[in-house]
Structures are given as structure tokens and as C-alpha cells.
Amino acid sequence: MAASPPSRLDTLRAQFEADLAKHGSSASCNVPGLDGWRIELIRGDVTGAWCGYAVPPPHFELEVNADGLDVHGGVTWQGDGKIGFDCAHWNDFAPGLISVGWSKCDTSDVKYWPFEDAKEEAIRFAHILTHTEKK
User: Fold this and answer.
1) What 3-state DSSP class applies to 111?
2) CA dist., res. 108 & res. 63, Å (int)
3) Which of 6, 41, 44, 54 has CB 3.0 to 4.6 Å from 10, enough for a Cys bridge?
């Protein structure tokens, strides 16, 4: 008898475990092409999903209207000199939410956002912010 293929949940968990082993729970780097800008990636304590932040240089005023900014799931944090998003929305796999009954991960449209994808989105978001009109 042939082994059954892994469930969608098993596949997503394996992606998360590989990403966690490779990248840990946080990272920070400069943004290519944007002098003084950094991004921070921090894994959510409860969700296990990445949260991405754009951190401008000290001279940049980060007073922007977050409504409608083009970033994954919308802006979920603005304060402490940074603005960010998270990868724990409706179609995102957030492994920490399984223990509280989140079960959508059995559907094919759910995605786990690995480090590289969250990093790319944070860099893209930082570039958007440099061209965003202030409040």
C-alpha cells in the first residue's frame, strides 16, 4: 500500500519548520538603494508568522496616513519610529494559531510567508514609503 501524500497542513508546517531552522525569529538589514533605511523582521510570539517593519533614517518624518498603503494585509503597526505589516491574515498560515482552533490551513489557497518573501515585501514597502505623502 502506497503512503498517502502529506496533507496541506503537514506541508505548511514543514515549510514553517524549515524557515524557523534557517532564519530563527528575527533579522534586520539595510534596504538596498535607500540610504539610511532598514527593515526589521520579527516572528510573532503568538502566531509564529513574520512581521515586517520599515525603519526610516532619523531625519525622515514617519507621519503617514497608513490607510490604503500597498503592503501585504495592510499596515498593522505604526509607532516607535517604524511602520509595518504582518503575515498572519486570512489566507496566511500562522502556525501558532492552530492551537487556538484556526483550521483554514486545509485549503489550497493558504500560503506560509517564509523569511525571503517577508523580507522582499518589507523592502518593497520601504521603497513605497519614501514616495508617500505625509499626513
Assistant:
1) strand
2) 38
3) 6
Exposure on the CB side of residue 123, measured as CA atoms within 13 A: 15
**Residues contacting residue 3 through CB under 8 Å, at least 6 positions apart:** none
Q: Are 96 and 47 in contact (CB under 8 A)?
A: yes
Q: Is the pTM of this model over 0.70?
A: yes
The Cα 29–Cα 132 span in angstroms is 22
CA separation for the pair 63, 87 (Å, rounded): 23
